[in-house]
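for the recovery benchmark. tokens below, seq after
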């Protein structure tokens, strides 16, 4: 089996002649809200799982809340990014 790497501008010509499926992507940076939201989501997930593992309902509940808050913040950052890219 052959691994197919994402195509960069230099490899497009070679990849178009290749019989494998080609994935083209555009490098995208994340804004502050997306980064902080996803980090908060991950932290909340860790707290939630830890709370469940040790039987601490309070930690599990706090983890769920933090995860939800992070998801909201990341969604807000995604919305800001979409608005910015649609106006360009």
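predicted aa per position
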């Amino acid at each position: 089996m052959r691994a197919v790497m994402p195509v960069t501008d230099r490899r497009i010509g070679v990849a178009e002649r290749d019989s494998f499926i080609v994935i083209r992507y555009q490098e995208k940076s994340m804004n502050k809200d997306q980064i902080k939201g996803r980090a908060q989501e991950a932290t909340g997930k860790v707290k939630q799982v830890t709370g469940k593992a040790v039987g601490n309902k309070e930690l599990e509940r706090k983890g769920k809340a933090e995860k939800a808050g992070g998801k909201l913040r990341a969604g807000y950052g995604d919305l800001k990014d979409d608005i910015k890219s649609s106006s360009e």
